[in-house]
Amino acid sequence: MDSSSSPLLPKETGLIGSEGEEHHPSSLASKTWAELKMLWQVAGPAVLTSLFQYSLFSVTQTLVGHLGTVELAAVGIQNMVLSGIVFGIMLGMGSALETLCGQAFGAGHLNMLGIYLQRSWVILTFTALLLTLLYIFATPILKLLGQDDEIASLAGKFSIWMIPEIFAFAINFPMQKFLQAQSKVMVMTWISFSALLLHLFLSWLCIIKLDMGLVGAAVTLNLGWWVLVLGQLIYILSGSCEKSWTGFSWLAFTDLASFVGLSLASAVMLCLEYWTLMIIILLAGLLKHPEIAVDAASICMNVEGWCMMIPFGFTAAISVRVSNELGAGRPRAAKFSVIVVVMMSIVTQTIFVILILTTRKVFPAVFTDDVLVMKKVSQVALLLSATIFLSSVQPVLSGVAIGAGWQTLFAYINLGSYYLVGLGMSLLLGFKFNLGLEGIWGGMISGIAVQTIILIIVTWRTNWENEVQVAKDRISLWGRSADASLSSK
Prior knowledge:
It is a single chain. This protein has helices spanning about 30-65, 70-95, 95-105, 110-135, 140-145, 150-160, 165-180, 185-210, 215-240, 255-285, 290-305, 310-325, 330-360, 370-380, 380-390, 395-405, 405-430, 435-460, 465-485. The protein is mostly helical. The model is unreliable at about 1-25 and about 485-489 (pLDDT under 50). GO terms for molecular function: antiporter activity; xenobiotic transmembrane transporter activity.
């Protein structure tokens, strides 16, 4: 397949100043508009897909919030901490496919994509088996971390009911990256929307109408994820990806060592980001009146999650754009795409900041009936807004890292920013200076700020011509065995 037939690699790629194309518009506005149209081919559906999938968690947490403060705190810890750990690991490891599938697709080697997908399934399913231990021993782990006994016990019980979710993640994320690399994103949007509609109805039925409480919440949330997984699996196996999916193959069990290395680097990079939310929740549980602090932090993280869906959509788009363009040998196109998407993300997140600040005394009532919790949420709304604004750039640059294959470098940056600067400041402000939840959150904001500055410098100083050669070498090395075997059939 010629790379120019890709929806994200059309002949109009010349509009962004890449090498050797036919069209060269004179104005920056024309180039930017052309790039935006290509970005939104993936970003639009990706934003909706992220919103619909995140809503599976959000709907459950919102309905449980009306059962009581202990129930909300327990589900909040399970969703944000325990499930957050698993989600981060699985999404991170699955993101290795964004680099490999995206660059292979850009280079026109479609037959390699299905092999990469199956290798990722093998690795993530084995990882899922190991991660079940985290859910099984959730209660003693949470108590060891200093969480309230009642909250830890209920969160642990809920975690055991949520074990099927782990394996849904293991199958889901590789399929998403596989489809995303080929710009088959609209189908994911419709499948996610259908799963959400079913989840909305069943959650209302089981949690509220039938009064099944946390059992109903676990049943419906697990079912929602597995409906999503089965929908995507049926689409792939039905022949809709005939050039990239050539059937199950024993090649899935070859070259696993290199694949594991990139998967682990991807996981570490993204986990260090996702786990900052977990740390805030855990540290909040060590404060006085932990129910109020954890509930307020959970609600704010829920709101932040909603606001971050657009940057996450941009993350998907830019990882596809960068990996496709590098695989196709167009470095200037990749660089220009990065600039455009960063500016778009800043604009959208600024709008969210304005909305949060103007409704900070109102929106907490959507999530809880407790007056003290609502008051606390209103108090930390300014910190929530600062986090959302700073995070307008960071997810996009993480997408650039995934598209280019810089996961290891960015993992080190995230480690230093979040856990040396951010965590250190959180402990100092939250406990040493007794600033409570505000201090904990403020400390993490300092880590995000440091990370964002470093990522901007690294991306700005990148030699994109060199990255094209790195992409070619990666495709040649990792695809040689797959190409040879598949071409002999």
